[in-house]
Amino acid sequence: MEKQLLRITVNTQYYELYIKPKALLVEVLRDHLDLTGTKRGCDSASCGLCTVILNGMAVKSCSILALQADGAQIFTIEGLADGSRLQPIQKAFLDHGAFQCGFCTPGMLMSSKAFLDENQNPTIEEIREAIHGNLCRCTGYNSILRAIKSVAEEISAREKTL
Ligand code: FES
Ligand code: FES
Question: I want to staple 92 with a disulfide (CB 3.0 to 4.6 A). Which of 4, 19, 84, 147 is the partner?
Fold first, then answer.
């Protein structure tokens, strides 16, 4: 099958590449762009390991064709920190011990980041709902929920002082 042109911006870098029409977004990120921080697990939109932010929304990159993302702006885990400066959500995961093996962490962080960009004053129930598509086999979810909630509290405390 003839390859087709894909134009995407990933972590603020613009790319044009020729890909197979059936290539999944996760394959393009990992195999063409070498952004292997995005993990691959179930390949059936169940585990959330492959979550990235596409035009501001958390999506499972195993569940969409890369060509469906033509023209899109994508952020992966590699684009989250600013050099050595971690995003608040990354720092909160460290501070709250919200990971063990870390395999789910990139997807969990991308879901959390997209969620907090939309909802800066969430309840624990809303946070639970936001990450319900991200599975973690190690930590249990309490430390993850606490980490996300702590960032939301920081944001709202900052807003009150403005
Ligand atoms: S690999 Fe995409 S949801 Fe599991
Ligand atoms: S930290 Fe191991 S799967 Fe979540």
Answer: 147
- The band of 158, judged by pLDDT with boundaries at 50, 70 and 90, is confident
What digits encode the pLDDT tens for the residues 68-77?
A: 999 999 999 9
Q: Which amino acid is at 97?
A: G
27, 28, 60, 108, best to mutate for ligand 1 pocket (most atoms within 8 Å of CB): 60
Per-residue pLDDT, 155: 85
Residue 131 in tokens: 């990450």
- The answer to whether the CB of 97 is under 6 A from ligand 2 is no
